[in-house]
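Render NADPH oxidase 2 in 3D.
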Amino acid sequence: TWKWVVGPMFLYLCERLVRFWRSQQKVVITKVVIHPFKTIELQMMKKGFKMEVGQYIFVKCPAVSKLEWHPFTLTSAPEEDYFSIHVRIVGDWTEGLFNACGCDKQEFQEAWKLPKIAVDGPFGTASEDVFSYETVMLVGAGIGVTPFASVLKSVWYKYCHDATNLKLKKIYFYWLCRDTHAFEWFADLLQSLETQMQERNNAEFLSYNIYLTGWDETQATHFAVHHEEEKDVITGLKQKTLYGRPNWENEFKTMAEKHPGSRIGVFLCGPEALADTLNKQSINNSEADPRGVHFIFNKENF
C-alpha cells in the first residue's frame, strides 16, 4: 500500500510548498473600488505576476481567516499594469474582507491600513483560447460574466494597438442575469467599448445581448414603454435589454447562416444545465463536412 500512497503524498506536499512560497510573496493593494450592491473591486500588484485572459487566482486574507483560500476570476486585462478581482459580498468571508478593506467606513482609507493579501496563481481556463478563432460566442450567466470582462478589455487593447494582427473579427456576447444588481459595474465597460467602436466606425465588431431572466411580464411591460428611446433605461446601452431566456436553437442557426465554413468558438461561464444545452446545440448545428461550419464548445462552471 505504501508504494501507491507515497507518490501522491509527495506530489501533494510539493504543491503545498509551492502554495506556501507563493503566499509569502508580497502583494500590494493599489486601489479598492466600491461598486453598487455590495460589490468591491480590488486592484493589486505583485512582482513577476503574469496573466492571460479569463484566468483565476486563489486569494487569502489573514485578517479574515489564516487558512481559507477562495477562487476569484481576474477581471483585468494582461495589458494593464495591475490585476484585479471583483468580489460580491454574499457570505461571512466576503463580509470580513469588505470590512477589513474599510469599505464599511465613510472616511477615506489610508493605503497602509489595508489588509495583507496572499495570492496563489494565476491558473488557466478555457477562455484563454478566445483569440484562436475568427468568430466567438461568449455566454455568461450572472456573476459568470467576470472572465469575459478580462476578455473584452484585452480585445480592446489589442484592437487599439494593432487590429491588423488580431485574428478575432467578430464577438457575439450573451449575458443572462436574474436581476439588474450585477449590471452597474459591467455595463460601464460595455458602454466604453460601444462608444469607442463607433468612433472607429466598427460598431459591428461586438454584438451583445443582455437578458433579464428573473423578471415577470408586468416589470418588462413597464420598461417596454421606453423601448423607443435611444438608450436602454436599465443599462444605458444602445442595445435594448431583452426579457426571458434566449432561444438557443435560433441563435445557433442564425450564426451558422452568417458565418458558413468557419470555426466558431463557444465559451460559457455558467451553470451545468446551461452547459448541457449549449453543448447539445454546438453538436447539432455543426456540419459533417470539414469545410462546413463547426461550433467548438468550451466551458467553465461555478
